[in-house]
UniProtKB/TrEMBL annotation:
Coiled coil: 1-34
Localization per Swiss-Prot or TrEMBL: Membrane
Protein name per Swiss-Prot or TrEMBL: Major facilitator superfamily (MFS) profile domain-containing protein
Keyword match Glycoprotein: yes
Record key words, sorted: Coiled coil, Glycoprotein, Membrane, Transmembrane, Transmembrane helix
Length: 375
């Protein structure tokens, strides 16, 4: 009887412990739910808007320099012919002129590829804001070289300026769309966590982190905007990058018409105006804080990260943001690398991969790039 009573007491004790554990789990879930709701209630403050405006000037540079070379094509080709005749005393045939102009256009992309390789190192060594500030030195140098092309009677200076401005713009723009899409699948994104099973979330997160290490660090502007934005605004504010590119492209086309700067005397100034966004960013950006995620995760400067968040959120209640970044850091440390073969073979990742490829192919095959950037 004593043994039976002892067993009953043990069972009762276990039941009480289970009940206490359930209450603890309920309290933890309620706390987590309240924390997520507070994250979702964060709004767009004045200082956050200012920081985003200062950052997207880099994207404006990309859009402007992508389209600015097209409108004055005839003027630039005539300039190349004149320079060649002054140097060598003979006319340059049409095929050679087209080749030189093609070099001026395409060397922008070559500089962009080289800029992409060094962007990650710059972002991690100097920070997101520091990298953008240093990047403006390239932007100003390239714009000044293009501006002085006609004064120096050197189309080689145009090539060199376009190359430097390509390095500058790629450091701002590489894979912007992918950055926005992948950030929407971050573990910190509440809607994704609700819709997907845990295994799928982890797999998507690992794929995103792997991709980020190999390419997205070259995208300084989208990275900075994403890391300073609150959770509920991150997706929407990510679209500002592409908007700035489009505005820059439109601005270059409008200024390039013959009635404004698309003339034999005006096209050097048209190319040189690319210096304006870079100079403006150099003035505005130093006031902005560094990325809190960079300060906390990369540099391990927690107090500096808190100060940056207080300025961006206009509030002292930043614990939820700090906890979100710490959760991302823990997930980053616990992640396993994923190979290209695993990316292709995984049913969870293969469908988004195919969708992304088809969307990019559709954009290219539609001819929109030829319409918006060349014609």
């Amino acid at each position: 009887m004593v043994a039976i009573k002892h067993e009953l007491d043990t069972v009762q004790q276990v039941k009480e412990e289970i009940e206490e554990l359930r209450e603890y789990v309920d309290r933890l879930e309620e706390h987590t739910h309240r924390r997520k709701l507070r994250l979702l209630e964060q709004g767009l403050t004045f200082f956050l808007s200012y920081a985003i405006l200062a950052a997207v000037l880099g994207m404006l540079q990309f859009g402007y320099n992508t389209g600015v070379i097209n409108a004055p094509q005839g003027n630039i080709e005539n300039f190349m012919k004149d320079v060649y005749k002054k140097r060598y005393g003979e006319d340059l045939n049409d095929d050679s002129v087209e080749m030189l102009y093609s070099i001026a256009v395409s060397i922008f992309a070559i500089g962009g590829m080289l800029g992409g390789f060094g962007g990650g190192m710059v972002a991690n060594k100097f920070g997101r804001k520091g990298g953008l500030l240093l990047n403006n030195v390239l932007g100003i140098s390239g714009a000044c070289l293009m501006w002085c092309t006609k004064i120096a009677n050197s189309y080689e200076m145009l090539f060199f300026g376009r190359f430097i401005i390509g390095v500058n713009c790629d450091s701002d723009f590489t894979l912007t769309k992918v950055s926005r899409a992948m950030h929407r699948h971050s573990l910190a994104n509440v809607s994704t966590v609700v819709r997907l099973p845990t295994s799928a979330i982890k797999e998507k997160y690992k794929a995103w982190r792997k991709y980020k290490r190999t390419g997205l660090n070259t995208s300084l502007v989208p990275m900075y905007i994403s890391e300073i934005s609150p959770l509920n605004l991150r997706g929407g504010l990510g679209t500002v990058n592409q908007l700035a590119v489009t505005v820059g492209l439109l601005l270059s086309q409008v200024l390039g018409i013959e009635q404004i700067l698309g003339t034999n005397d005006g096209w050097p100034l048209l190319l040189g105006l690319a210096v304006c966004p870079a100079l403006l960013q150099l003035v505005l950006l130093p006031i902005c804080p560094e990325s809190p995620r960079y300060l906390l995760i990369t540099k391990q400067w927690e107090e500096e990260a808190r100060k940056a968040l207080r300025r961006l959120r206009a509030s002292n209640a930043v614990e939820e943001d700090i906890e979100e970044m710490r959760a991302e850091e823990r997930a980053q440390q616990a992640e396993a690398s994923i190979s290209m073969m695993q990316l292709i073979c995984s049913p969870t990742l293969r469908a988004p991969l195919v969708i992304g490829i088809v969307m990019q192919l559709s954009q290219q095959l539609s001819g929109i790039n030829a319409v918006s950037k060349i014609i």
